[in-house]
UniProtKB/TrEMBL annotation:
Protein name, entry field: RagB/SusD family nutrient uptake outer membrane protein
Domain RagB/SusD residue range list: 341-415
Entry-linked SUPFAM superfamilies: TPR-like
Record family assignment: Belongs to the SusD family.
Repeat region (TPR), residues: 217-250
Xref: Pfam families: SusD-like_3 (PF14322), SusD_RagB (PF07980)
Organism for this UniProt entry: Chitinophaga defluvii
Length: 461
């Protein structure tokens, strides 16, 4: 474990709290009095208001991992109009950073910690037990969800044999502004994510009134995601299956209208938990051109080809298939939420990796039957579970496009030589590449955060 003290009054109040103090409904709970202490929520209503206010915790997911991924490309004119930090991340510049992905995630952590530090002061009784449990479970879930996002963007791929030594994330486990900054190991980081999610799952209800609030299925889904990137396929299978048992609904794309600007309705039956990234113009529909090889990989009977994409006047293609409703030309946030379709892909991949090829393909067919024109999907004949795995990973790429899953997938799959991918960007007469397992897959922690906290920075060549 690497530890470095820092002044967390400075870190929280100068970096995080300015984001929070603009939220008028929560201001009274998060104001900074003259003695720099937090005014804390004192009732369950206060705490639920913090979790719900303007869905802030659901709309500041990290976005640079999608900017840096290979689902799309930019023309030179669009690239030149970007903010310098976004340009640097698009081209994988060695010094690329982006402050708001870090502060956004730790804003979520702070909200969760304020609740967790104070909820035990509210007596739990027969009348409020369910609500008390739900609020505590939600705070744990949001904290773990944010930790997972930070690890996915600012750390290298999880490797069991080196996890105890590899640099992980800053595990903020209280709202105490005087606590030192600690950059934990990867093993410690993922152990905390799993512990928080399991405790959240034990407290959360089976269903919620709003998809911006987590329930048991959401906690199971995040556990499945976490174990998948850790390479623990047995556990990922268990939790994906548990999630699907509670939330099996999958959209039938045959029932959608591809002529609409946004064919996939927001908060639809397939969504388990709704989140979106912040927005950047690089990902706007009128800027991001879908990778042509990726677009051509969709078969003609695959309804995703018309549901997910529209053809531009120059023959290129733009993405319109967000699960967050209409994707207008200027809209640049990505849906990152949990869906039952994603869980079917996790389950299918894990079955294949565990040598159960036939079951893996049967699980995949459950999804593909609802993505292809009715009666047209035929399960390919494969000779082994490994061949089934390749097929499943290809479908995962096509299903989860612009969902902020690709960066994590590239990192974890690059550890396997058969799936390693070299990324290439062409900007004018310049060609940029990102090799498998490059240190740039662990994005730089913002320099302002390093300056305040003195925590170790990610390495560069």
């Amino acid at each position: 474990m690497q530890t470095t003290k820092c002044n967390y009054i400075t870190l929280y109040f100068l970096v995080l709290l300015p984001l929070l103090l603009g939220l008028s409904a929560c201001k009274k709970y998060l104001e900074a009095p003259s003695d720099k202490s937090l005014v804390v929520p004192t009732t369950l209503d206060d705490m639920q208001a913090m979790l719900d206010y303007n869905s802030i915790l659901n709309t500041i997911e990290p976005v640079m991992s999608e900017v840096a991924s290979d689902n799309y490309y930019l023309k030179a004119a669009n690239y030149s109009n970007l903010n310098i930090n976004v340009r640097n991340n698009y081209a994988w510049a060695p010094k690329a950073e982006y402050l708001y992905d870090w502060t956004g995630a730790y804003t979520v952590v702070l909200y969760g910690n304020v609740i967790l530090d104070n909820i035990d002061r509210i007596q739990k009784d027969a009348a409020n037990t369910t609500r008390w449990n739900t609020i505590k479970g939600s705070a744990l879930f949001f904290r773990a969800h944010a930790f997972y996002n930070v690890a996915g963007q600012f750390c290298k791929a999880y490797t069991p044999t080196t996890a105890a030594e590899d640099l992980g994330i800053v595990l903020r486990l209280s709202s105490d502004v005087n606590a030192p900054s600690v950059r934990s190991s990867m093993a410690e980081s993922y152990a905390r994510i799993i512990e928080d999610l399991k405790q959240a799952a034990s407290l959360l209800p089976l269903t919620t009134a709003y998809l911006t609030r987590p329930d048991k299925a959401a906690a199971y889904g995040d556990l499945a995601r976490t174990y998948l990137v850790m390479g623990d396929y047995q556990s990922a299978l268990l939790y994906a299956d548990s999630c699907l048992m509670l939330h099996p609904a999958v959209l039938d794309f045959n029932d959608l209208n591809p002529a609409l600007a946004g064919p996939v309705p927001s908060f639809n039956a397939e969504v388990i938990f709704h989140t979106t990234t912040g927005g950047v113009t690089a990902l706007a529909q009128n800027a991001a051109r879908v990778d042509s090889v990726l677009y051509d990989s969709y078969e003609e009977n695959d309804l995703r080809k018309s549901i997910f994409f529209k053809t531009n006047s120059d023959g290129t293609h733009a993405f319109k298939g967000t699960f967050d409703g209409t994707f207008t030309p200027g809209k640049s946030a990505c849906f990152t939420g949990l869906t039952s379709g994603e869980m079917l892909l996790v389950k299918s991949e894990c079955l294949a990796r565990l040598g159960q090829g036939d079951q893996a393909l049967s699980t995949l067919k459950t999804l593909m039957d609802l993505r292809f024109k009715r009666g047209t999907y035929t399960t390919p004949v494969v000779s082994s579970a490994d061949d089934a795995l390749l097929l499943i990973l290809n479908e995962r790429r096509k299903e989860l496009i612009f969902r902020s899953r690709r960066w994590q997938d590239l990192k974890r799959l690059n550890k396997e030589a058969r799936f390693a991918t070299t990324l290439t960007r062409v900007i004018g007469d310049q060609v940029y590449t990102l090799a498998p397992n490059d240190s740039r897959y662990a994005m730089l922690i913002p320099s302002s955060v390093i300056g305040l906290s003195q925590i170790p920075q990610n390495s560069r060549p």
